[in-house]
Amino acid sequence: MIHETASLGRKIELGAYVVIEEDVIIGDNVTIGNHVIIKAGTRIGNNVLIGDLSILGKTPSANQSMSRKPEHAIQPLVIKDDVKIGSNTVLYKGSSINNGVFIGDLASIREKVRIGDRSIIGRNAMVEMNTRIGKQVTIQTGSYITGDMIIEDNVFIGPCCSTSNDKYMGAGNYKHRGPTIQQGAKLGNNATLLPGIIIGKNAVVGAGSVVTKDVADNQVVVGNPARELNK
Amino acid sequence: MIHETASLGRKIELGAYVVIEEDVIIGDNVTIGNHVIIKAGTRIGNNVLIGDLSILGKTPSANQSMSRKPEHAIQPLVIKDDVKIGSNTVLYKGSSINNGVFIGDLASIREKVRIGDRSIIGRNAMVEMNTRIGKQVTIQTGSYITGDMIIEDNVFIGPCCSTSNDKYMGAGNYKHRGPTIQQGAKLGNNATLLPGIIIGKNAVVGAGSVVTKDVADNQVVVGNPARELNK
Amino acid sequence: MIHETASLGRKIELGAYVVIEEDVIIGDNVTIGNHVIIKAGTRIGNNVLIGDLSILGKTPSANQSMSRKPEHAIQPLVIKDDVKIGSNTVLYKGSSINNGVFIGDLASIREKVRIGDRSIIGRNAMVEMNTRIGKQVTIQTGSYITGDMIIEDNVFIGPCCSTSNDKYMGAGNYKHRGPTIQQGAKLGNNATLLPGIIIGKNAVVGAGSVVTKDVADNQVVVGNPARELNK
């Protein structure tokens, strides 16, 4: 089911039962798994690997209870060169995935997200809308990256971390602000960050910590609430 | 692959490689994504949106080690009007999803669950069997809703929350009891609730808190174990 | 799309749009769901149930930023008798799943994992590479089992638990060591284990605890950091 307006490069390896919609543009040397769905307008570079049962370029939707409605005029999903995408992933339109990025199985990335070169989005990790992720960032399996969040270069986020951008927990129509994680900072597994928190450069957050206030550059914090180690 | 006994209404938009089994009933103005599987007997209302690669009406199964076997005589899955269902979801038979509900990508809902009008089940959220969810409830991305749990109207559950219904951790064949979350209560991200806990009306549980005993109406608790704030 | 070199036993129930690659061997009395993909060389026993939209025998891949590259010479995936596999699962090659194992929907198991008889891998649980899981183990919904981990017989891991094997959080090319959970130990929901931790026989870790040092046989620990109960 490849739409006649889709443009495929050379050396395309195509799985079974694939759906490619109108105006999709695919580069050279791309492997497309079985049962993959590529939505209208999606642009894919060269040397890209797409796992089975994945959706690229999904349009956001909402119900009556959601205060934040998805925008209508949204750009196509853009995937650059040498990207590897796992199986059973759901990637929305309006996001850009840069060169050499790796996206694990069962991960999902919402609209208007930017991911820098060679970063890793682990299996089953969820990334919400409007978030910017730098270069060579590692986000491990099962971590939850909220919307309106900034993750700078070389940050390491262990498995099962949780972040939030909604201080008043659904109470109304105010500005959401996710955490900022500065260059080279590291989070241990299952760490919790509150909305708007800033984690300084090269800071370390221990596994299972609950971070309720900003962490300074190079600081190491642990516990619930997180406090500086050995103080 | 649409079974001849299936009944489809008017204005059905049908994706590629869809499987619709016997005795399925679908209303008017329904969009069915690619590679969707609708199991025997499932009933779907009007104005429903079903994302790609989703399964509706799955039959539960078990292995030898499970103390709780799934019941055999189980009703079909019922989906009411104006419901939106994400991609790669797995919804079991025996549950009912009321008007205007939104279910995110990669979510799963087990058998005998009831979900009230306009509630939101976030992406990758998991809901276990026999749980009742009220109206206008928000369950955010990645939260785990155990079985035998009651969530009243207008409750807000942040991302990555975890609940449990099994006090003796698999030790035998006793009655399981999940938490009860009363009207308007809110849970911050990555909060943990122990089995049988009651969270009172309009109570607030801070992010990363571990709730080991009941929380009174309007109380705000934080920490591990969770204690009243500023006390 | 069944490759001509694949060998299927008697009484195979085959869904729609299935892909079975070369040299796959399948026993008798096996049910294969719709849109299932079985990769080259995978071996499946008798009386096996495979849910819809699942992938069996996936080959690992990596990007430039990953210090641990997947091995090239890897054995096929081996699934023994009476195994039940959920929908939307992703199982890698090089692993072995023993008799009577149950794997929930949306779960994923990486390469070189061994799972003993009658164990349960819950819905949306993730298991990383090189991990050994004993017999009659229960891993509940959404738990994260890191790589290089040992889980002995009759262990119970509640929902949403998180483990880690990387003490220096991505800092280099050293040996990773996951936790060891000894016979009969139990973890409450959303517990966090640090790398290399040993949980002794029949020990109990409370819900939401953060375990930063070894736990002795029969000990009960709670809190962040976890300490012996009532001490």
TrEMBL record, chains A, B, C:
**Superkingdom of this protein's organism:** Bacteria
> Could you confirm whether the keyword Repeat appears in this record?
yes
- Which residues, by range, are in coiled-coil regions? none
Q: Which InterPro entries match?
A: Hexapep, Hexapep_transf_CS, Trans_hexapeptide_repeat, Trimer_LpxA-like_sf
Query: Any idea which UniProt keywords this protein has?
Result: Repeat, Transferase
User: CDD domains in the record, alphabetically?
Assistant: LbH_WxcM_N_like
> Which Pfam families does the record cross-reference, listed alphabetically?
Hexapep
Protein name stated in the entry: DapH/DapD/GlmU-related protein
Organism this protein belongs to: Ornithinibacillus xuwenensis
Q: What is the lineage of its organism?
A: Bacteria, Bacillati, Bacillota, Bacilli, Bacillales
